[in-house]
Amino acid sequence: xxxxxxxxxxxxxxxxxxxxxxxxxxxxxxxxxxxxxxxxxxxxxxxxxxxxxxxxxxxxxxxxxxxxxxxxxxxxxxxxxxxxxxxxxxxxxxxxxxxxxxxxxxxxxxxxxxxxxxxxxxxxxxxxxxxxxxxxxxxxxxxxxxxxxxxxxxxxxxxxxxxxxxxxxxxxxxxxxxxxxxxxxxxxxxxxxxxxxxxxxxxxxxxxxxxxxxxxxxxxxxxxxxxxxxxxxxxx
Length: 236
What we know:
By secondary structure, the protein is α/β, with parallel strands linked by helices. It has helices at 21-31, 40-56, 58-66, 68-82, 90-107, 114-123, 136-145, 158-161, 168-178, 192-201; strands at residues 6-9, 16-17, 109-110, 127-132, 154-157, 185-189, 205-209, 226-228. 49% of the residues lie in helices and 13% in strands. α1 packs across α2 (40-56), α2 crosses α4 and α3 (58-66) crosses α4 (68-82). It is elongated and about 60 Å long. It starts with 5 loop residues before the first strand and ends in an 8-residue tail after the last strand.
């Protein structure tokens, strides 16, 4: 397949493997076992329920990804409340949220071959843009940690612009920065709603990356233009 004039790439779970969040949630719950008589298994189940509740709301999701620390505090507070443990000290909940963040940060690593693929794409002369949702602080930390900015002609972070995917303005801003039309660009990302449907709404060819091999969900109602398992598949 011939490359387009520009490729827009998502960050988390596209370039960087965020790992399994369940592992970090469970580890923190085990460390907090017996806090006010709450078992690790009971707390873990309550945390997962609270997490699913939190991220199910578009409004909470947008606010949460811009302030992950507060989102995680809210999830732990709701979990303890659901278990009837309403007197857990605030400092204990803060320590759990901080510990979870540490474990999640430690788990982040580039997918095998992802950085090499970006370097090769860069060498082809295709314009590259990084488009990521999330807070400026958290996303910039990851970009700097893995020296990613060197691959891109434009980097756009939701927390800096004030607009994120799937808002059409987020994609239009990137296209404008690159100086290309939507028909001359590809979007590559793992989120069917934010990355794929958002890109398709503005006429950008949308490529869904299934890095973990889970297969295309049938309940999202979104059909990508192409499915790949790694960024290296973009190369001619």
